[in-house]
Amino acid sequence: MDACKCGAPLRAVGAQTLCALVPQRTLNGLSSLDGFGFCDSPTCSVVYFRGVDSASIQADELDVLVFEKADEPTRLVCYCFGFTVADVTGPGRDRPDAPDRTILANCRRGLANCAVKNPSGHCCMRNVRGLLRQDPTCCSATDGSAHAR
Predict the structure, then answer these.
(1) Which CATH number belongs to the domain containing residue 124 in this structure?
(2) Which residue range is the domain that position 27 belongs to?
(3) Domain co-membership, 28 together with 83
(4) Res. 144 pLDDT band, cuts 50 70 90
(5) SS3 of the chain
(6) Is 0.85 surpassed by the pTM of this model?
């Protein structure tokens, strides 16, 4: 996979991700939906990039805030089940129905649809775990391990 024009490595995304999240007016301007990758660099405005022809889709072209590109606590971190950054890092993380545990349980039950709902085209648990590691009030932040298991 190519790198984004910002130099960040890209993670492959399928056409189903683009079709679900990119407005039709933007899709209409593309020659193909093949070969796009997701740029997770928070300093780059590009969300999807295709190196072959330098086609790109910017964050402001999407109808959803992209977790990696925004910093609002109300932005979604879990697009399948609607959990925001504030939900994940807020009080109640030790409850049995805490967002990270709920997400894992739902994924194990086959209820997630990350390839369609998440702009990255991948599961959100990497981002959820990252938020919990960064949060100094999280019970596991002192030992560097992820809260969600």
Answers:
(1) 1.10.10
(2) 10-61
(3) no
(4) very low
(5) CCECCCCCEEEECCHHHHHHHCCHHHHCCCCCCCCCEEECCCCCCEEEEECCCCEEEEHHHCCCCCHHHCCCCCCEEECCCCEEHHHHHCCCCCCCCCHHHHHHHHHHCCCCCHHHHCCCCCCCHHHHHHHHHHCCCCCCCCCCCCCCC
(6) no
